[in-house]
Amino acid sequence: MALRGTAGDKDFSFVGRAPSLASDPLVRLPDQRTRPTPASSNGACSRQLTRLTYARNLTWLRLLGTITTMQGMSAQRKQQCLGVGLNSSAPPFRLASLLFLASAIANIAAAQTSTARRTVWDGVYTEAQAARGMMAFGQSCAGCHALAAEGRAPLVGEAFWKSFQQKTVGDLLEFVSKYMPNGNPGTLSAGAYQDIVAVMLKSNAFPAGTTELGPNNTDVQIIPKDGSTQLPADALVRVVGCLARSGSEWVVTNATTPERAERVAPAAGDATRALGTRTMALKFVVTRLDNLAGSRVAVSGLLIGAGGVDGINVTAVNRVTEKCP
Ligand code: HEC
């Protein structure tokens, strides 16, 4: 999937698949990540973003990854790349590009609204399947990934939770089937990918069961054992609530629990859904929100701190209804 956006003098283009990286990408990536790019050139911003997209796989959609990587930048750098300063009166045409992206994301995001879904704690693969997966993993993945919490590009523990918490086993299967092995994506059989996902689940200490993981039983939520719905820092999320001022800051009151943005269909139900009790700070807001004050809004952005304890690094704010709640 390739996406291109044009706004003002600026082109954004995003390629929605993992690139073929030259040999030993995991060793080279970290210094690419920090290599300075000239601040004066806007082209450098998009190149930097694109490169970071490859380097940091914070989300399974490369497109989302592009926005996600802005989290790693300073506020000033982010504004430079957006072309909008906090005090700038320049037309926010680059923000428009981001909004274009946000709506593109919305369009490709799948709606997932069911409630009592199975979870990874329900035994969604078998021991025999994980044993087969171990072999396949050894052949196709172990060269680049540690099936442990430590080591090269680990797929267990914190790294796993960071990328996949609140997603589904189907998302994980789709990710590895589409993008891995990096450089030769999609080259294994469907069964081999399912087996490999089974061993990834086993390695992350989810229990085995009596039914193999197959193409039709992957709607399984990846959540911690205690059922916590808190998302990790940097997750791209969406909340609905009431926009208000708090001192010099914008906040959303009565906020719903943050949900992974790529898992939620926007709009449908936003106007009528039950709101929450939480107040979330909106950070790095680069547009004027005054005319939305008091409205019910949908905010998307990146969680700052686990669960968004320090707020949301905002990418878009959209009015849902005039009045709130
Ligand atoms: C040639 C090296 C290479 C091989 C082989 C490879 N990968 Fe990857 N994999 C990568 C790179 C590079 C990334 C992106 C890492 C990043 O951006 O953090 C990645 C990312 C991933 C991720 C996402 C990790 C995260 O935390 O978001 C998963 C899951 C994954 N690979 C699974 C697999 C599986 C399963 C296989 C075998 C079928 C495989 N990989 C084979 C290089 C490889």
Structure description:
There is one protein chain. The two termini are 38 Å apart. This protein has three domains: 2-108, no CATH class; 118-218, Cytochrome Bc1 Complex, Chain D, domain 2; 236-321, OB fold (Dihydrolipoamide Acetyltransferase, E2P), CATH 2.40.50. Helix 1 runs antiparallel to helix 2 (42-55), helix 2 (42-55) crosses helix 3 and helix 8 crosses helix 9 (190-203). 31% of the residues lie in helices and 18% in strands. 36% of the residues are buried. It is built from nine helices and ten strands. The longest helix is centred in the N-terminal third of the chain and has 16 residues, at 93-108. A five-stranded mixed barrel has the order 5-6-8-10-9. The protein has a two-stranded antiparallel sheet with strand order 1-2. A two-stranded parallel sheet has the order 3-4. It is elongated and about 60 Å long. With 325 residues, the chain is of the alpha+beta class. The model is unreliable at 1-73 and 78-114 (pLDDT under 50). It binds heme C. Heme C (HEC) binds next to helix 1, helix 7 and helix 8. Heme C is lined by residues 21, 25-26, 55-57, 140-141, 143-145, 153, 155, 159, 163, 175-176, 180-183, 196.
